[in-house]
Amino acid sequence: MQFTRRTLLKVTGLTTVIVALLPRMAFAARNSLRTVRTGIQPGNKTRLVIETAERPSYSISYPANQLVITLSNTAANASLAPAMASGTLVTAITQIQSGDKLQIVADLAKPINEIPRDSIMLLNPNGDNDYRLVLDFAAGSGAVAAATSSAKASQKTTTPSRKYVVVIDAGHGGKDPGCIGKGGTQEKVVVLSVAKKLKNKLDAAGFRTYLTRSNDTYLKLAHRASIGEKKHADLFLSLHANANPSRAMKGFSIYTLSEKASDEEAAKLADAENAADKIDVSGFEQFDKDIRIALSSLQQHAVAAMSVEYANGAASAFKRAKITQQPGPDVRHAPFAVLRSTVPGALIELGHLSNATEEKLLKSSAHQDKLVAAIVKSVQGYNFDV
Length: 386
Hints:
This protein is an alpha/beta fold. The protein has two domains: 3-146, Immunoglobulin-like (Sandwich), CATH 2.60.40.3500; 154-381, Zn-dependent exopeptidases (Aminopeptidase), CATH 3.40.630. The chain is 26% helix and 29% strand. The chain has eight helices and 17 strands. The chain has helices at 149-154, 187-204, 221-230, 264-274, 289-295, 299-320, 356-363, 365-381, and strands at 3-11, 15-23, 31-41, 45-52, 58-61, 66-71, 74-75, 90-98, 101-108, 120-123, 131-137, 165-170, 208-211, 235-242, 253-257, 331-334, 345-352. The strands form four sheets. A six-stranded mixed β-sheet has the order 13-12-14-17-15-16, with helices on both faces. A five-stranded mixed β-sheet has the order 7-3-4-11-10. A four-stranded antiparallel β-sheet has the order 5-6-9-8. Residues 1-27, 142-159 and 277-299 have low confidence and may be disordered.
């Protein structure tokens, strides 16, 4: 594909250069960049705000004297001039389009350390604002290695400093078989097998794990979510297998909770999964009062950001393990009832039972072990400490 280069210069006391590499034939992006702005926060912290039309799926990396935010399936905005406040660490902001990924590159006057998770917020639309990814940071003692935070974390293999709690939810069960492959393979059987193997591996790696079900039992979705709360989980993983009208469709996909689905397919999948017990996900009546209060507060933004951070790392771990990915963005978002809690989490579709080849894989012990190994890597790489 050929690219054209467009350069826009703006002088605001500092020289800001935006360079966008735009394909001559635009791709069908789900998301688009609206604004980029900087500001000063108490404690002499710099605030970087990236506003997008839809909820962003992102990763963060830290090259020398730079901060790079990569947005999946997002189009650049060549006419955008960032609003640059004086006195911040950001000296210039650059947009770089690479396929369907957009990199926002902030040049820094001083190096910074990796931004703590509680200094990253993902805010829902409010008034005239769309979705906003907000990052607060200050000068650090040294530059962070030039690897993405998820990739860097994925290389950690040390035993956690404490026994972090992971709740593993094997989807469906009992009277609800989930989807059924052409060869008769039931989703509830596959995911329970993977869940048990995952528990054993995570226990051996130093985590404390719980299963929402350890046998062929039917559970309401709200009850599954409440187990994560009652166990004071640090991470909640709901395992599923997918089905698609097209038997050619295959591959894993990863989802986090949002009130608005990222695309039509994510919306349909959420409807199908939520139909397991007919929970009205537009309301909170099925959930405990303390959970409803927390979900209506700013805590939901932190939980959303932590969930997306895990999901991005999980997608990377699956791809490094050479597990086929369903076409589309690395991480999708939809209103899954089972994820509606104060615990960061993700719903992982392990593959498609509607695809004959993948149905055989999902039944095989060797492929299940491969899936489990990738999930273990993603959990070990997740930053629990912030």
